[in-house]
Amino acid sequence: MASSSIFALFIFFIFLLHRPFSSNANLHQTRLFVSEHVSQAAPTEVPITRYFEVSRPIQVPRTKPCSVLVLQHDFGNTYGQPPVLAQYNPPLNCPSQDFSKIVLEWNATCKGRQFDRIFGMWLGGVELLRSCTAEPRGTGIVWSVKKDITRYSSLLKNPQTLAVHLANIVDQTYTGVYHVNITFHFWPAEERPRFQKPNWASSVYGFGFPADLILPISRNLPLNDGLWFLVQNSTDVQLKEFKIPQNAYRAILEVYVSYHSDDEFWYSNPPNDYITANNLTQVPGNGPFREVVVSIDGTVVGAVWPSTVIYTGGINPLLWRPISGIGSFDLPSYDIDITPFLGKVLDGKQHQLGFSVTNALSVWYIDANLHVWLDKQSARTKGKLIKYDVQPPVMTLVSDFNGSNGDFLITASRSFLLAGWVKSSHGNITTQSHQYFAYRNTMKFGNNGNEQIVNQTTDVNASVYSRLPSRLYFMDLSRRFPLYLYTNFVDQGNGTSTSVSNLSLGFNQQLFSHGPFGFSRGNLINLQAAQGSMIVKGNLVTSGLGSTQQVYTYDGKDGCYFRKVSSRNYTILYDQIERSCKRKLHPSLFLGVNKRPFPTRRNLLASDLHDQEKQV
Ligand SMILES: *[C@@H]1O[C@H](CO)[C@@H](O)[C@H](O)[C@H]1NC(C)=O
Ligand SMILES: *[C@@H]1O[C@H](CO)[C@@H](O)[C@H](O)[C@H]1NC(C)=O
Ligand SMILES: *[C@@H]1O[C@H](CO)[C@@H](O)[C@H](O)[C@H]1NC(C)=O
Ligand SMILES: *[C@@H]1O[C@H](CO)[C@@H](O)[C@H](O)[C@H]1NC(C)=O
Ligand SMILES: *[C@@H]1O[C@H](CO)[C@@H](O)[C@H](O)[C@H]1NC(C)=O
Ligand SMILES: *[C@@H]1O[C@H](CO)[C@@H](O)[C@H](O)[C@H]1NC(C)=O
Ligand SMILES: *[C@@H]1O[C@H](CO)[C@@H](O)[C@H](O)[C@H]1NC(C)=O
Ligand SMILES: *[C@@H]1O[C@H](CO)[C@@H](O)[C@H](O)[C@H]1NC(C)=O
Ligand SMILES: *[C@@H]1O[C@H](CO)[C@@H](O)[C@H](O)[C@H]1NC(C)=O
Ligand SMILES: *[C@@H]1O[C@H](CO)[C@@H](O)[C@H](O)[C@H]1NC(C)=O
Ligand SMILES: *[C@@H]1O[C@H](CO)[C@@H](O)[C@H](O)[C@H]1NC(C)=O
């Protein structure tokens, strides 16, 4: 039946693959299949698998780093528990306290069976990392995440409380305990011109320099949850009071978002008219368009149109082993320059930041960091918002369906323009901040609703122009997030389902800026394609095969990086890395010519999955 198969499709997505934080009850109903297979399996000769997300290695100075182990912890049965806390102290015994690069390193191992778990890391309430754990194997896995946290320098100069929230469940079925080390590495500045600070005159205005102060826009401890806010529906507005120092002259709001449960796959949610017509009560709807809206004292100041991060258990977990989905180990954060709005909040009083999500279903995890630059020469700055041009999003929906088959076209667009001046000891600086968004999603249901094809593109252009007394600084950022997703899910009617999926996913970015270091540019094209098939019984993948290809091309003023890598059935087929700037291979060529046979064969067992089936 169409309705029951769609029901199954989404139940499958939501409850079987990416165990949402709130679905404990379902989770514990499904322990039927396990009886300590993990300890019996795992022949010792099978090596530990190293999972990874493809990204450009962080460039660091040639100095010797000072490293601080900030947390060593085993995340076992942590569901419903408060975040794990640790005292952070800066590396006071380091030869120099002048650091030009600070890098966070997360190293983890896990063995057994476990779902992908979202986690967050906060220092003094400021979010440093939003990430997703890798799903382990019976034979064990290891993975490492590195993130440049230099922009949080001002925070890292003082002792702080580190909080890590990772809600895991460990029982007889879900045996994976995450063993984690978190280390911060501090690189003293190099005695070379490239890393020397420019003189005072050019180092003002925050361009290219970390903020003087970072205000946490997150929930306060103590909590039995993450420090993120939970946005549960389209009318839910989560608010946080904040007070900004009266000598601020520049402010950027960095927003972290992730989506779970009914909205984990928001980009594939059908429109409500389809759901109503087909009497589908359990299918998450509200269509596929989402917008995170940020307001100050009730006035909308900017938005985030998110990229589509697929967590390590998403769509087909076999796709993400060992190459993880784009953004899954280091979810992107999104900057909104609110400097033009400073004039409204420099009065020394409490103000309110608000987060909401257009069309949201439960649940979105959202919080933010407010990066603030302070005028060290004066106790008060003065400012005024001089232009505010923000229209609601223009959204269209074209529906054409008969029963559970049909086509949809959903589009949206929006622009923001804010301008304002701030007068400080650096002079009277006028800042214009623009955000332009365009979104298009075509969705097709066939095969009585069993088959779904989603083709979505989100375009974001953001620019900030700051007119200083003697020069113009600017930043122009363009991003495109393409997504193509094919899934065919067939319930065999005997507790077994088959699924075929094919997807491509991208995070492309162009950045062009002018600041105290002169002009800078960096172009990134990061594309993944993946094909998978699997047979699912209850909530376990009993057999299947996943293949993934990725091309990452970065070309910037600060160097180049190219990586082309492919995996199939847990094995890397090829892995090519180049650092020279000579190569000009456009990844779309590669993705277009991939002629790998489409994996529809059944009974191709991944080793640890085979063991699970034997238990049934
Ligand atoms: C983290 O793991 C990587 C990869 O195994 C290793 O090179 C690095 O030294 C580890 N970091 C720490 C702080 O142990
Ligand atoms: C964490 O650090 C300890 C001590 O250096 C080491 O024994 C352990 O293997 C590390 N664990 C991970 C997951 O890197
Ligand atoms: C939306 O979510 C909020 C917060 O959980 C809740 O108070 C409110 O009742 C919900 N509204 C609707 C229409 O469900
Ligand atoms: C709609 O679903 C409900 C609950 O499953 C069922 O009772 C009802 O008969 C269905 N109606 C139609 C028209 O299919
Ligand atoms: C809808 O589909 C049914 C059978 O699948 C068919 O009989 C009917 O003509 C279709 N309606 C339209 C308007 O195409
Ligand atoms: C700052 O510059 C703007 C635009 O040039 C002007 O309208 C405003 O009056 C100036 N503010 C001060 C305090 O001079
Ligand atoms: C973003 O900028 C590019 C290049 O200027 C332009 O082609 C595109 O239409 C812009 N997109 C939006 C959504 O404004
Ligand atoms: C997806 O849609 C875009 C237009 O938005 C189109 O150019 C592209 O070919 C489509 N991709 C696929 C695989 O159909
Ligand atoms: C379930 O049904 C499918 C299709 O009829 C069949 O291939 C499969 O072997 C069945 N599985 C079980 C466990 O009965
Ligand atoms: C799946 O992907 C392969 C390779 O990218 C492609 O050739 C094939 O047409 C795709 N199939 C579907 C149903 O999208
Ligand atoms: C996948 O790899 C396992 C061994 O790791 C092997 O037994 C199995 O046959 C492979 N499957 C395919 C389809 O290549």
TrEMBL record:
Keyword terms: Signal
One Pfam family in the UniProt entry: PNGaseA
Domain Peptide N-acetyl-beta-D-glucosaminyl asparaginase amidase A N-terminal, first and last residues per copy: 63-390
Signal peptide boundaries: 1-25
Xref: InterPro entries: PNGase_A, PNGaseA_N
PANTHER family xrefs: PEPTIDE-N4-(N-ACETYL-BETA-GLUCOSAMINYL)ASPARAGINE AMIDASE A PROTEIN
Stated name of the protein: Peptide N-acetyl-beta-D-glucosaminyl asparaginase amidase A N-terminal domain-containing protein
Organism: Nelumbo nucifera (Sacred lotus)
